[in-house]
């Protein structure tokens, strides 16, 4: 790994439970960290900087009660927000001296300096080589590669191609986001050249997430073909569940293609439509076929760990086979 010891030492698996709007709450993040995987969450999921501070205090206390090593939490700063709100959240993260932060939807330049001064490693969420180059120029330590297949707002690049292209310009920490289905896919990401994988959809289907019971059930009942790529709800390419769109009274085959501002005006929290994005229509990644039950985070991590170990054994067995003679 190219990960610093401050990030790697408590990991059971090289895995991040993805930061998901209206899904990643304090219970999910704490459970992930205590199970040995990095628990990420958008800071906007906390209703105020005071609540954000309380969340970080709760996670720290929960980790202290666990006798084995635990993974750090990873707040996600979304930069396309009110500047005062970003500044308030940043002050909390600096004061709490968090180990790792993911910056997304905007340039990380304004927050890299203060976070580095607090000893924090800064990762940027990127969806293209141009974005990666800009983030590296701004001084980030690592990159989260948003590739095709991620749930919610998604990338367009094939993950395998993206990792190898970025490895040509960056030898520091890399995280692959999108298409990490199970422990085997996580091991494949490591072989490909990533330090960490990011998994979201399977963590939605846990009792610790903020998702509704109906959302969890729909994930269990869905498969890859039920994921629809659309710009209707955010103005950007987003992977959503067809069934949730239909249940909200919309036709998945006749959705609009608005700009981001238009989508916010229609489907935002105060939009004109009766349907609210993330609340009434739900996202999922291409990995939804791997959700076969609602499981507690600790049990889910146990299963991923077993899958990861099995994939390593299978790789070792393949390497041990003698070359086959050519005809």
Write up this protein.
This protein has 327 residues and is an alpha/beta fold. Helix content is 40%, strand content 15%. The chain contains 13 helices and 11 strands. The strands form 2 sheets. Strands 1-2-3-4-5-6-8-9 form an 8-stranded parallel barrel, surrounded by 6 helices. It has a 3-stranded antiparallel β-sheet with strand order 7-11-10. The radius of gyration is 19 Å and the shape is globular.
Write the topology of this structure.
Blueprint: H1 5-8, E1 15-17, H2 26-35, E2 38-42, H3 49-64, E3 73-78, H4 83-96, E4 100-104, H5 109-117, E5 121-126, H6 129-137, E6 142-146, E7 152-153, H7 159-166, E8 174-177, H8 183-192, E9 196-199, H9 201-204, H10 213-221, E10 227-230, E11 238-241, H11 242-247, H12 260-267, H13 297-320
Parallel strand pairs: 1-2, 1-9, 2-3, 3-4, 4-5, 5-6, 6-8, 8-9
Antiparallel strand pairs: 7-11, 10-11
Helix pairs in contact: 2-3, 2-13, 3-4, 8-13
Keywords:
327 residues; alpha/beta; 8-stranded parallel β-barrel; 3-stranded antiparallel β-sheet; 13 helices; 11 strands; 15% strand
Specify the overall morphology: globular
Q: Unreliable stretches, pLDDT < 50, 5 or more residues? A: none
Number of helical segments with 4 or more residues: 13
Structural class: alpha/beta
Average residue-wise pLDDT? 95
Supply Rg.
19 Å
Helix-strand pattern: HEHEHEHEHEHEEHEHEHHEEHHH
How much β-strand is present in the residues?
5-15%
Number of extended strands: 11
């Amino acid at each position: 790994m190219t990960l610093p010891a401050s990030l790697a030492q408590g990991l059971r698996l090289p895995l991040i439970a993805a930061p998901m709007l209206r899904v990643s709450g304090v219970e999910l993040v704490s459970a992930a960290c205590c199970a040995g995987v990095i628990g990420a969450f958008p800071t906007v999921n906390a209703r105020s900087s005071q609540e954000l501070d309380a969340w970080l205090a709760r996670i720290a206390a929960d980790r202290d009660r666990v006798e084995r090593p635990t993974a750090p939490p990873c707040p996600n700063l979304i930069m396309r927000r009110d500047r005062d709100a970003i500044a308030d959240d940043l002050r909390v993260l600096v004061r709490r001296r968090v180990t790792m932060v993911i910056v997304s939807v905007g340039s990380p330049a304004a927050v890299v300096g203060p976070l580095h001064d607090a000893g924090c490693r800064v990762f940027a969420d990127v969806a293209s080589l141009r974005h990666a180059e800009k983030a590296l120029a701004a001084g980030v330590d690592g990159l989260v590669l948003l590739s095709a297949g991620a749930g919610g707002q998604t990338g367009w690049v094939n993950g395998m191609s993206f990792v190898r292209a970025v490895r040509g310009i960056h030898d520091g920490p890399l995280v692959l986001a999108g298409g990490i289905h199970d422990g085997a896919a996580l091991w494949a990401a490591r072989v490909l050249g990533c330090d960490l994988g990011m998994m979201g959809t399977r963590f939605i289907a846990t009792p610790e997430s903020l998702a509704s019971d109906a959302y969890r059930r729909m994930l269990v009942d869905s498969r890859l073909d039920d994921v629809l790529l659309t710009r209707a709800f955010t103005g950007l390419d987003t992977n959503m569940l067809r069934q949730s769109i239909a249940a909200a009274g919309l036709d998945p085959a006749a959705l609009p293609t608005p700009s981001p501002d238009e989508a916010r005006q229609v489907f935002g929290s105060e939009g004109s439509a009766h349907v609210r994005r993330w609340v009434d229509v739900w996202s999922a990644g291409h990995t939804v076929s791997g959700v076969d039950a609602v499981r507690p985070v600790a049990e889910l991590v146990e299963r991923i760990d077993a899958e990861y170990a099995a994939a390593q054994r299978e790789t070792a067995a393949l390497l041990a086979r003698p070359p086959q003679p050519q005809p």
